[in-house]
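Hey, sorry to bother you again with one of my protein questions. There's a protein on my desk that I can't quite get my head around. No rush at all, and the record is pasted right below.
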Amino acid sequence: MKIIIMNIAFSVLMAVMAWLKGFNPIIWLFGGGLPGFLLLVFLPAANAEGIDEETRKARRRRSDIAGLVVVLLTVVVLAALWKYVKGQ
């Protein structure tokens, strides 16, 4: 039960971080745990001051794509683990 609560808290933390950086928080809510968190930390913010609108949109798009890739990889890994565990 503690693991589930920690995962939910971590997911919410990632969504809040994404929102504060100007990214889509819904994508990052499912952002794939630690690998997604590390990626999110190192992505440049889309709402930073001093950048033009084109750069802002490019950063948002890059973040959305990166987040979706991490989510998809997480789903694939979890499905493979589930299949492995069920096969045991």
About this structure: The chain has four helices and no strands. The helical segments are 2-20, 25-29, 33-42, 53-87.
